[in-house]
From TrEMBL:
PANTHER family: BLR1237 PROTEIN (PTHR42928:SF5), TRICARBOXYLATE-BINDING PROTEIN (PTHR42928). This is Tripartite-type tricarboxylate transporter receptor subunit TctC. Keywords: Receptor, Signal. SUPFAM superfamilies: Periplasmic binding protein-like II. Residues 1-21 form the signal peptide. InterPro entries: BUG, Bug_dom1. Belongs to the UPF0065 (bug) family. It comes from Rubrivivax gelatinosus (Rhodocyclus gelatinosus).
């Protein structure tokens, strides 16, 4: 009886320590892995949030860019971290799409990662090179693409990304051929279109906007169900005649499995608070990024919905990366 009472006492103590883990955390610098390169939309979000979170936590937030393998490299590094202070700013590709694209992966998103909070969600935009592509509407682009004997060349921010799969879906729906040229992140993928190395791309707006202002890239449409208030002149893909081509490129913080619930709750609460700051919302809006926030459960539902929607699409299109 005494042994049972002692064990119960130890269990209660462990539970209490676990519950207060979030109060004591962090005890050293926090590492935020970004699985894309500097200057990408994820990098922008990480540095914007990191600066404000560091002030709240009293510890530096170190942004660690680890691009490669369509985001798998960086996500894998964070999934295997066991220091209690390393997290990843993930996105659709390496979290929701990858299990359908690769026969073998270095990590299991469902087993090795815990959703913390969704940071932003934004549609992709269809962009074309101004000089190479004589099209100012989606219909004109499709008509031009059908005249290309070898199809179009399109860039993306990586294999298995939302940008990659959205274009593959569009090519299928429009009945045109395309050659995929993947890059490590949105800045080089956008530059490829601006310099004429690629004819077109689907990606989120931030990396494209400087080239749009320089008149080297033209935007044709957005993949959301409604027009963007930041780019109201762009029709939706549904308005352009392709209702099946809908996609949202979301970003969110994820932790390695085993991270205490109290730490997850602490990060979730602080990120939500930062996302509600007017200055942060204005900075994100200026880049065409919509802040989301919400609970860890909300983020999990978004991931599950993406898996349910895109899994069959990837299988139908026959896209494989190994």
């Amino acid at each position: 009886m005494k042994r049972r009472t002692a064990l119960l006492g130890l269990s209660a103590l462990a539970a209490a320590l676990h519950a207060h883990a979030g109060d004591a955390w962090p005890t050293r610098p926090v590492h935020l892995v970004v699985p894309t390169g500097p200057g990408s939309s994820l990098d922008l979000i990480a540095r914007l949030l990191g600066e404000r979170l560091a002030a709240r936590w009293g510890q530096p937030v170190v942004v660690d860019n680890k691009p490669g393998a369509g985001g798998l490299l960086g996500v894998d590094a964070a999934a295997k971290a066991r220091d209690g202070h390393s997290f990843v700013l993930g996105f659709n590709g390496p979290v929701a799409f990858a299990p359908f694209l690769y026969r073998r992966m270095p990590y299991d998103p469902a087993r090795d990662l815990l959703p913390i909070v969704m940071t932003t969600s934004q549609p992709n935009v269809l962009a074309v090179n101004t000089a190479r592509v004589p099209a100012r509407t989606v219909a004109e682009f499709v008509a031009w693409a059908r005249t290309r004997r070898d199809g179009i060349a399109y860039s993306s921010l990586g294999n298995g990304s939302s940008a990659h799969l959205t274009m593959e879906l569009f090519l299928h729906e429009a009945g045109i051929a395309g050659v995929h040229v993947p890059y490590n992140g949105s800045p080089p993928a956008a530059m490829a279109v601006a310099q004429g190395e690629a004819d077109a791309t689907f990606m989120v707006a931030p990396a494209l906007l400087p080239h749009v202002r320089a008149r080297r890239v033209h935007l044709l449409a957005v993949t959301s169900t409604e027009r963007l208030h930041s780019l109201p002149e762009l029709p939706t893909m549904a308005e352009a005649g392709y209702p099946a081509v809908q996609s949202l490129a979301w970003n969110g913080l994820l932790a390695p499995a085993g991270t205490p619930e109290a730490v997850i709750a602490r990060i979730n609460a602080d990120v939500n608070a930062v996302l509600h700051e007017p200055g942060v919302r204005q900075a994100l809006d200026a880049q065409g990024l919509a802040p989301v926030g919400g609970s860890a459960a909300d983020f999990r539902r978004t991931i599950d919905a993406d898996i349910k929607r895109w899994g069959p699409v990837i299988t139908r299109l026959g896209v494989r990366l190994d």
